[in-house]
Specification:
single chain, 303 residues, mainly alpha, MetI-like fold, 2 domains, 71% helix
Length: 303
């Protein structure tokens, strides 16, 4: 009887310790989530603030309103109306066109390169993979000057920065084969061999057999290809070089912040633009989160 009581006590002790540890972990995660979400909540609230439209030290209540009537904070959709009457729609369209074209072209290139390196065995295969791996370690900023000069000579900079940015984003797509190749390595090669015996071509094997089985990695590749141009700032600003009509949303919104230090009229409109830019991406990730995680974990294997 004493042994049973001791085992029960040990079990209850372990259960209590597990509950305490889980509670501590949950408290830490909740605290981290609150800290992480506070800036986003502030941006959303500021996007609806009407007066004043510059940057302020308060969020919901103006401390000076108690002393000076008429300074109470008012909220509305004025910033969003002003937003669509500005250059923002043009910037948004530029960004959407760049991201959409890059997502389609880059996904095709990456998947074809990954399938080739996963299934074919040819000379210089491993040296080529190692070369692309080493080359990818160098930051892209090292080539910004020469890329700008090349694009300018081709007429793809300044006012024509949109096609120039598409060309640059797509040019090195094949180097991003790592995760996709790892996912393709997990698919049995016997499927390829069976399809080849039935008379299927390599392209038919890839697009009709392998890709339907690799849906998570396809969605992962599309999302990563779309998000790169969507949030790019440094290179997009460098290529457009002050041409407002060629800006993407990141460069355009930053120009409002820079002007805000002098005019004090664009901060709330900047917040409204940030909300509009973030909403589609958040919805996209929430709908495709499961496939995104499966693509990352499925591709994280030794190739």
């Amino acid at each position: 009887m004493s042994k049973q009581q001791n085992s029960m006590k040990q079990h209850m002790g372990m259960k209590a310790a597990s509950r305490i540890s889980n509670t501590v972990v949950y408290i830490i995660l909740v605290a981290m989530s609150v800290i992480w979400l506070i800036p986003f909540v502030c941006i959303v609230i500021q996007s609806f603030r009407i007066n004043p439209t510059g940057m302020t030290r308060y969020l919901l209540v103006n401390p000076e309103a108690a002393l000076k009537p008429g300074l109470e904070i008012r909220f509305g959709f004025d910033n969003y109306i002003r937003l669509w009457n500005s250059d923002f729609p043009r910037w948004y369209l530029n960004t959407f066109i760049i991201a959409l074209v890059v997502a389609v072209v880059q996904t095709v290139i990456v998947l074809c390169m990954s399938y080739t390196l996963s299934r074919f065995r040819f000379k210089l295969r491993k040296p080529m993979m190692q070369f692309m791996l080493i080359l990818g370690m160098f930051p892209g900023m090292l080539s910004m000057i020469i890329l700008y000069q090349v694009l300018k000579d081709l007429g793809l900079a300044l006012e024509n920065a949109v096609p120039g940015l598409i060309l640059v984003y797509v040019a090195s797509s094949g180097m991003g084969y790592y995760v996709s190749k790892g996912f393709f390595d997990t698919i049995p090669k016997s499927l390829d061999e069976a399809a080849r015996i039935d008379g299927a071509t390599r392209a038919q094997v890839l697009f009709k057999i392998i890709l339907p089985l690799a849906k998570p990695i396809v969605i992962y590749t599309i999302l990563t290809a779309f998000m790169g141009p969507w949030g790019d700032f440094v290179f997009a600003r460098y290529i457009s070089n002050g041409r407002i009509a060629a800006y993407n949303v990141a460069v355009g919104l930053q120009s409002w912040l820079a002007t805000d230090t002098m005019t004090g009229q664009n901060y709330t409109m900047f917040c409204a633009g940030g909300v509009i830019v973030a909403v589609p991406v958040v919805i996209l990730f929430m709908c495709l989160q499961r496939y995104y995680v499966e693509g990352v974990t499925g591709g994280a294997v030794k190739g």
